[in-house]
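Reviewer 2 asked us to include a model.

Predict the structure of this chain.
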Amino acid sequence: MLQSALRYCNLMAQDEGQGFCFTLSGSSGCGKTTIAQAIYRHARKHYGVYEAPIGMGGTLITQTRPVLFWDASQLAGRLKRGDWQLVDTLHNAFFLALDDIGNEHDPSGFMGSVLVDVLNARRDKWTIQTSNLDRPDLASRYDARFASRLSRWGNKIMRFEAPDWDE
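Predicted model (structure tokens):
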């Protein structure tokens, strides 16, 4: 798991324009969120703030790029309350981590549509997702469109089996 996370960070460093979605799937407590948080901190530190030249004089100004980490349940709550500007923010972030997808309470299937929209907009952008569910379970939870995007466009799914940290 750590080697895959390191490879993802190295790819991000080599070619910032060609990102992909990396989904970490596995049982509770196996380290998915810890890995996603470490990659998020790496992205925030190295890519969230940078200097860029402007004008003919090449003056450097400090720029920021959105580097986001969202728990799926909190995200669902914000969206259900009508925070639709957040969807544009998710679409355009340099890096986005969505933690614990499939765990949010969503009897209407609303989040599945939002997640398909977000994944479509984030093609070639750096995205990490974590879930206790594997691909077939995610397809059942949301729909086949969502599950197909997890391995489309060079996106990767990795399933981990490890004992819970607390055991």
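The first strand starts at residue 21 and ends at 26. Strands lie at 21-26, 49-54, 59-64, 67-71, 95-99, 126-131, 156-160. We have added this to the supplementary material.
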